[in-house]
Amino acid sequence: MYTLFLCWRYLRTRWIALASVVSVMLGVATMIVVNGVMEGFTREMQGRIHGILSDVVFEANNLEGFPDAAGHMRRIEELAGPYIAGMTPTVALPGQLAFEVDGQWQTRHVSFIGVDTTTYGEVSDFNRYLRHPQSRKHLDFTLHEGGYDLVEGEPDTLKNSGWPHRRQKAVTGAAKSAVALPTAVAKAEQPPPDEVVIRDGYRYRRVRQAPQPGEVVAALRNPFEPLNNAPQFDPSKDTGTGVVLGLGLARVASADGKKFLVLPGDDVKVTVPTATVPPKPSSDTFTVVDLYESGMSEYDANFIFMPLAKLQEMRGMIDRQSGIANVTAIQIKLHNDADGEHVRNLLREAFPGGYYSVHTWRDKQGPLLAAVGMQTVILNILLGMIILVAGFGIFASFCMIVAEKRRDIGILKSLGASSAGVMSIFLSYGLSLGIVGAGAGMLIGLVFIANIQWIADLIARLTGQEVFDPTIYYFQEIPTVVEPLTVLVIVTVAIAIAVQASVIPALMASFLKPVEALRNE
Amino acid sequence: MSDMRPLVEPRRRGGTGAAGAPHLVSAPVGKPDDSAHIAAVRLTKSYRKAGMEIPVLRGVDLEVRRGEFLSIIGQSGSGKSTLLHLLGLLDAPDSGEVQLGGQRIDNLPMHKRDWIRNQELGMIFQFYHLLPELTALENVLSPLLISEGIFSYFRNRRRHVQRATELLEQVGLGHRLKHRPSELSGGEMQRAAIARALAAQPQVLLADEPTGNLDSETGREILRILRTLNDQQNVTIIMVTHDRAIAAEADRTVRLARGSMEVA
Ligand SMILES: Nc1ncnc2c1ncn2[C@@H]1O[C@H](COP(=O)(O)OP(=O)(O)OP(=O)(O)O)[C@@H](O)[C@H]1O
Ligand SMILES: [Mg+2]
User: Fold this and answer.
1) Residue A26, domain extent
2) Which of A24, A344, B3, B230 is the most buried (most CB within 10 A)?
3) How far is Cα B142 from Cα B197, in angstroms, rounded to an integer?
4) A141 domain residue, yes or no
């Protein structure tokens, strides 16, 4: 009983010992904050990477790809069927994208991804990054009648883009092109403008007043069948094939806010190399139907999505006789509990390594995730050191307290206190300090995490320097994840260190001979 | 101090004190009886200092009867404190025995010696040795705290506090219960120390120069308290002192010189 009683008294009267607790507290608090932010960052990054990449990617090692996607999918199904939730064929192809900004054409080197509209949404989380609510439900590469979602800081122009923007542009464009544009464009383009209209087998007519999705899908499925009711390409009523651009391309951020270079409803020029040797450029006009932002700048500035059949056709990947088209990859979605690496290994065994490669989404971004993981480990080691230093602080102040309390220890023993009892006074003292320090640290850490955005904003306002620049990190908010297990481990380790630090002083106290403690006055 | 009430209610035989140490058989009350209550048998003790052996006690024989008030005098450095520490089980003799109620106690296992210190022996020091963080009341409670576990303490808390308060009132500190030692005078501290020594109702009181640090009037008061204790509760008292006048208050005085006992 006296153990706890005296421990409590010492705790109350020895504020000096609480000083060493402050560093335990700070160590625990920073550790919780750092782990929370790192974990949040990692999860966010993983989510974004994973959002674009499917669980397992089965791909050809060259740009020609492999024919008979259906056959490959059957084989994959045979090998790893029980793990697989869905599959979709894709084509990835580097090429060039040209778009017009303020009357100037800009060309970018990008990667085009041809996706199968019916199955891609089931395999990848890509759709949820789209800006139009309808596209998010099902991406069919058609242009919408406005209603695109904005994020903070974006100009309103996006909201009413789509058809209204396109019609508006058609009116002003017609006036302008009467003066300057037609000749310039006609000369720049490989096929003359009127030929574009004649080749409208690759286009579909869109009736503004009453859109008919069935008609659209049919057109996509069979691009060779011209629609006979579309003799003329009218930009206010017709669109090119739909493409989806990333915001890394379509939007720029400057000091005075965000600005769109391209909006849904704008036409862009796509050029890809044909599959012939040597390759020749194959170009066409597309219409931007939606924008996406995955948050991975690398993807958002690079990947442009379009219907699979259209890309295969432009590349010339479709066999004229059989009608079978090549694909370059098969994206595989697994069941939630399936082990991606196991499936990857199964597929790697079955398909020749020289021609195919199989990766999980983690493999694809391995170095990035590994770097983040490494940083977390190093930070934890450094912060652990802080707590360790705090442990030495406790050790030192405890040694001093024991030395100072020699006489009292002697008195307690003369009153019949056992050595174990005296020892446990100091052990529970250390334990209390640990609990106080770690507990306070945990509270501070959690409160800090809960208000991290507010704190970051405050620092930004005080220093004039953005702590997490959203244009670099793509975070609107600093992502944090509080993992209860991590917090528990941190707190337990901190308490254990505090107790450890008090073991030696406690032993010193318990070995103290009462006479020696009582004698020197 | 003239209106002093009994310090300790007559000891309940076989009560708390003996319960944990059944081998310590207490003799019936009776002033002074012939059996040795606490005894030293050929006790020797020497200290080693820089390779030199300094013998302090060279075979001390001492028998104190139950209910006796003995004073030990001797020159400074003659080993009085050393002897008292040996009797109080705070130190181990090089050879010889310490006996309590006819039984050897210096070679008992540690937990038994802790128990005897707590229950059978009360100690008073020249420098009071109160715990500075605790109030007078808590200091008096401390022997009881030590002997009780958490649950039994809370069960008996009220009784303990009442007893400690009574003890403090009896030594004239009823108005100083919540004072820290630093807020008490020397005499008050020594009285609190006596109350603490009595808290667990020990039968032997070992006092090492209890008046050594006090002016003679205050010293007399302390002595009167001890005298009353001895008279009314039959507590066996061994008191070390420098002062012949103080020593004269005791039933018997012995002198420690050259490492052994002489009759004063
Ligand atoms: N731990 C120790 N190491 C070495 N010598 C010691 C130790 N403790 C005591 N002594 C020596 O033992 C002798 C007896 O000491 P003790 O304290 O018992 O004397 P005392 O009779 O109580 O003296 P005083 O009247 O001054 O209190 C002294 O000479 C002292 O120097
Ligand atoms: Mg002495």
Assistant:
1) 2-47+368-519
2) A24
3) 10
4) yes
Q: Tell me if chain A has a CB within 8 Å of the CB of B112.
A: no
Among residues A361, A386, A408, the one where a domain terminates is A361
Do the domain assignments include residue A515? yes
Let me know whether A114 and A262 are in one domain. yes
Does A442 share its domain with A419? yes
Cβ-defined contact of A514 to B91 (cutoff 8 Å): yes
Residues A312 and A403 grouped into a single domain: no
Name chain B contacts of A521, Cβ cutoff 8 Å: 126-127
Report the atom number in ligand 1 closest to the C-alpha of B74. Answer: 21
Same domain (yes/no): A270, A330: yes
Q: Cα separation of B67 and B53, whole Å?
A: 37
Query: Cis ω on the peptide bond leading into residue A278 (within 30° of 0)?
Result: yes
> Residue whose CA is closest, atom 24 of ligand 1?
B76
Instruction: Give me the residue from A13, A416, A421 closest to B133, CB to CB.
Output: A13
Residue B125 contacts A where some CB pair is shorter than 8 Å: yes
pLDDT digits (tens, 9 = 90+) for B214-264: 888 888 888 888 999 899 889 999 999 888 888 888 899 999 988 888 877
Q: Does the pTM of the predicted model rise above 0.90? A: no
**Which of B78, B94, B255 gets mutated to test ligand 1 (max ligand atoms within 8 A of its CB)?**
B78
Give the count of domains, chain A: 2
Q: Do A427 and A500 sit in the same domain of this protein?
A: yes
How confident is the model over B35-68, as pLDDT tens digits?
788 999 999 999 888 888 889 999 999 999 999 9
What is the tally of structural domains in chain B?
Answer: 1
A63 and A35 both lie in a single domain? no
Supply the ipTM of this predicted assembly.
0.85
B240 C-alpha vs ligand 2 centroid, how far in Å? Answer: 8
Is B75 within a domain? yes
**A461 CA from centroid of ligand 1 (Å):** 71
Q: Which residues of A touch B142 (CB under 8 A)?
A: 2, 412, 415
Cβ–Cβ under 8 Å, residues B90 and A514: yes
- Examine residue A60 and state whether it is found in any structural domain, yes or no: yes
Q: Cα–Cα distance between B256 and B62 in angstroms, integer? A: 10
Nearest chain A alpha carbon to B116: A416
Between chain A and chain B, the number of residue pairs with CB atoms below 8 A apart is 77
Look up the CATH number of the domain holding residue B117: 3.40.50.300
* A8–B contact, CB cutoff 8 A: no
| Ligand 1 binding pocket includes B154 (Cβ within 6 Å) | no
Instruction: Confirm or reject contact between A342 and chain B (CB < 8 A).
Output: no
Of A407, A416, A513, the CB nearest to B147: A416
My answer on whether A28 and A87 are in the same domain is: no
Expressed as residue numbers, the domain containing B187 is 67-81+109-253
Based on the fold, state whether residues A141 and A286 are members of the same structural domain: yes
List, as one string, the DSSP characters of chain B: -TTPPPSSPPPPTTSHHHHT-TT-PPPPP-TT-SSEEEEEEEEEEEEEETTEEEEEEEEEEEEEETT-EEEEEE-TTSSHHHHHHHHTTSS--SEEEEEETTEE-TTS-HHHHHHHHHHTEEEE-TT----TTS-HHHHHHHHHHHHS-HHHHHHHHHHHHHHHHHHHHHTT-TT-TT--GGGS-HHHHHHHHHHHHHTT--SEEEEESTTTTS-HHHHHHHHHHHHHIIIII--EEEEE-S-HHHHTTSSEEEEEETTEEEE-
Closest Cα to atom 2 of ligand 1: B47
